[in-house]
């Protein structure tokens, strides 16, 4: 079904479906194995112990790669649209792409350096991934408004900005509550010390993560009218 989509719409569709599966599959395995409590663990908690750690690391790294490709195609799409409309500076488009790729790098760090093994590196990667991701979708929302009404509908722009605002609002308490958690562990139970901070931070983390997923879902319509062509020239001596 993905391959039947017009243009390159299959790319964000694959990113959305794959990343959703990465979160859900790791969560289900971790819960069934008894490694985490079912009630809102951190996303990283669901990929810390084997066997879910292998699944989590593999699928999140693929997610990061798909995000890199999706962001680059989005960059090319804006550049092409900008040739006739001139609604945004090319430098701003490039800056947004670089911010997005920073987030993908952070995602790769999260997948590679697990929470209990190297917590400091893992936390830095998570901060880069979520922080850069929030900045990226906010900038893309602004660019979307600038491209209206020729290249985007105001409805899509409103949806993207709403997702960006919700993600920004959730990102701040996610960091604040996480900073108040005094221990690194994955087997949290209600009533123990710092559980409330952990619980609130985890809710915000899942909100931001699925905010990214829903944001990339809005790319599908734009990518339907954009195709990549590879030309091959053969020179005879």
Automatic annotation (TrEMBL):
InterPro entries: CWH43_N, DRAM/TMEM150_Autophagy_Mod
Protein topology in the membrane: Multi-pass membrane protein
Location of this chain's protein in the cell: Endomembrane system
Keywords assigned: Membrane, Transmembrane, Transmembrane helix
Record carries keyword Cell inner membrane: no
Family annotation (Pfam families): Frag1
UniProt domain CWH43-like N-terminal: residue ranges: 8-225
Transmembrane segments: 7-33, 53-73, 94-112, 124-143, 155-177, 197-220
Example of a GO cellular component annotation carried by this entry: endomembrane system
Biological process terms in GO annotation: regulation of autophagy
Family: Belongs to the DRAM/TMEM150 family.
Name of the protein in question: DRAM1 protein
